[in-house]
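A further point concerns the way the authors explain their paired sequence and structure data. An entry of this sort, consisting of the sequence and the corresponding C-alpha cells, reads as follows:
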Amino acid sequence: MYGIDVNFDFTTDTPNYWKSFWEQDSLLGCAGNDPDGKSKTLQKYHQLLWSRELPNGEKMKLEIGKGTSYLQWDDFCFGSDSIIASFRYKRYRGMIERVSKLLPNYRSFVEDYLHKSYTIGGVIIFPKRAGGINQSRGCNLYIKDRWDLTLECIRLFYMGKPSPLYDVLLAEKSFFDLFMDFKGYVDFFFLQDCVSSDYQQVEFWMEYKGFVKNPLPQSPEEYLIWINKELDFVCKRNKRIQSYIHSHF
C-alpha cells in the first residue's frame, strides 16, 4: 500500500497517450491509448488498493489477469473505469467549441484536467463484460457517463428501485452483494464525498432533474462548474485514500 502515490499521473506510463494528442483533433484531442487498459501502474494500484476485506467479511485478493483479463478474483473479472468525464465527444463538439472560447488557454485547461483526473482518485473498478456497467453507463441516453447519475442508479439498486441501469446492475448482483448495502459500497471505494452524511442522497454535480435524455451540461458555464466539481471530488478522494493508507499500513 505504501507504494501507492495518489498524485501519480497514469497518462505518464500509458504508451503514446500524449503522442499526436492535438494533431489528431485540434479541439477535442485524442489519446494514443487509454490508461484504463494500458497503464501498468494503474493496474497495480487497483490490485493493491482493493485487495482487502469486503463488507460481507470476505477478503478480496485481486490477481493481475492474462490476455484480455485485467484483474481477477474468485469468479470475478474486473476492468478499470474512469469516474469522471469531460464529454469531449464529436456529438458534443459545439459545446466544447463554446467552452474553448471562454478560456484563455483551452489546451492547457484540457491537459491539466487530464493530468489530475488520471490519478487513483479518478478511477474505479467494475465487473468486466460486454455490455457491462462501464460500457452501459457511457452509452445510456439517460446517464451519458455522468458519475453522479451512475451512483444514483447504484443507490436505487440497493433499494430495489428502478433506474436506467437497473438491468445492467442486476446482472452484477453477486458483485454488489459483496458490499451488503449502499453504505458498504460507498465506504469501500472511498466515495463518501459523493453522498450526504447519512448516505441517503447522492450529491449531484449538476442540478438534478431526474433521469432525462441528454443530461450533459447545457451551457459553457454549467460545463465549467461540472469540471470543477469533478476535480474537487478527485482531490478529496485522493486525500481519503492517502489517509486510509497511512492509518492502516
User: Anything to note?
Assistant: The chain is about 40% helix and 5% strand. The longest strand covers residues 76-82. The beta strands are 63-64, 71-73, 76-82, 123-127.
